[in-house]
Amino acid sequence: MSVKFETDGGPGARGRRGPISSVLKRRQVFVEAVRSRLWPVPTAAVLLAVLAGIGLPELDAALDDRLPPTVAGYLFGGGADAAREVLSVIAGSLITVTALTFSLTLVTLQLASSQYSPRLLRTFAADRVIQRTLALFLATFIYALTVLRTVRSATDGTDGTAFVPQMAVTTAYLLAVASVVALVLFLGHLVRQIRVEAVLEHVRADTCATATRLLPPARRDTPAVPVPAPPPHPHLVEAASSGFLVEIDEHALLTAAEQAEAVVWVDRPVGSPVLAGTPVAFSWSVRPQEPLTEDAAHRLSERVRAALRTGSERTAVQDIGYGLRQLTDVVVRALSPGINDPTTAVHGLISCTAVLADLLDLRLGPYTQCDEHDRVRVVLARPTFAELLELVCTQPRLYGADDPMVLDALLSMLRELAWKAATGEQRTAITDQLDRLREHVTDHDTVTRRHLDHLARQVGEALEGRWAGRRPT
């Protein structure tokens, strides 16, 4: 069966995408789960180190003295006691360095939580440099210990033969050198990573990548897909567990709706908090004269519940607004009396502006999936541009109302967005935020009020110029 995926982003918007398999969705969720934790990469490195520590000495024993002299000259040339000393020093030093690295990582996480936002901990834990550095240190430590057990002197054992795995000890030396280089690079990376500019840029890039992956480009040359009106009494689907809605298996929903000859409407966007036993979706038959039976509605509800996954925290896999929530948290935390850093708040609003500007070119709003006959079968709630703009503007406007820098940044954001706004819905959202910001301009002195009034006029001129098809003078 050929399945068509449609998105409805408002009047004049319609687009097509190929089916997204549930396997791909599960893979994205799994990759995100692994990427956002510190332990998977170091654990895999430790396992590889154990295998290498067992395999390389076996290779040494198999090759014995058959290596060419030019190669053997670069390998470890000491005896058993020297090999033990080298491996012991490497193992002892690396576990100390690992403890230092882990301590610095915890300090960084604590700083990110207290200075920026607790929701940024996931971002720092997903840092690949931190994960790979810990993996290298632990792997070198475990490798050295594993090789150490194979070193034998002539007085050891019963056969009276010495065994020094030259290639294995040389590899341990090279890993130790790589660990020293990695420590220097790690310290430099950590210093850069705790800078607020780097944090904001990372979140901005991650948010834009998520939006580009989930949302199709906005197209104004095709008619909108009409969202069907639900009947007065649809069948309600209750949430199976409490938490945040972190994943929706769109392919499974479409398959269930087609097989039940029904329409499924999930009215909670990804990222919303849900409570077990409360409605999160509803369904009804595509044939008004043949409503769903109780058994059919129950089976469909079970399949819908199975397609909705909740978690204890929001993730960026399918949550379009999560990145903006993180950026706004940084802005609000910077405006708190305990930190009082309006410059950081302005930087955060600039990052929010970049994300919202990219979202102007993508399809937001309700998302519909159609069958091969272009009949809507699934409707998924997704945030509109107005909702995301409200998320960014509300708290900074309230907590930064007394700071001209924050009001300046908010008005500048609206001005830049007004230049790119191409639909009536987008312009209306910008106009609404402009009107609410103007209420706070009157609370400042004459010079500040004159500057903010000038910015507000620029926003209006940008909107009028776009409407009239010309740029304001």
UniProtKB/TrEMBL annotation:
InterPro entries: DUF2254_membrane. Keywords: Membrane, Transmembrane, Transmembrane helix. It comes from the Bacteria. It holds the Pfam family DUF2254. This is DUF2254 domain-containing protein. The chain crosses the membrane at residues 38-56, 86-112, 133-151, 171-191.
